[in-house]
Amino acid sequence: MKNLKIFLLIALVAVLFTGCAQPVSVEQCVEGAKVYGFWNGLWHGMTAGFSFIGSLFDDKYIIYAINNNGGWYDFGFILGIGGLFGSGVTVRSER
To answer: For residue 16, what pLDDT is reported?
Structure first.
C-alpha cells in the first residue's frame, strides 16, 4: 500500500510539471546568440530547481535554454538533473 501511495504521488507531480511545458517556436531563437552545448546543459540541469523557484516569481528566469544545440544539450541537462537530485532509486538491504 505504501508503494502505491508513493507511485501515485510521483505520478501526480509528473502530471503537474508537464503542465508547465511550453512549445518553443523558431521565432523565439535569436540569430547570432550563443548556442548552448553539453556543459551549459549540465549546469542548467544542476540549477533547474533554483531556476524553477525563480520562475515562479519572475518571468526572466527560465529553466531550459532556447538556443541549444539539441541532443548534447539535452544529454547534459538530464545528467545535471540526475546528478543533483539523484536517480530517485534507493537500494536497501534488510537483515
So the answer is: 67
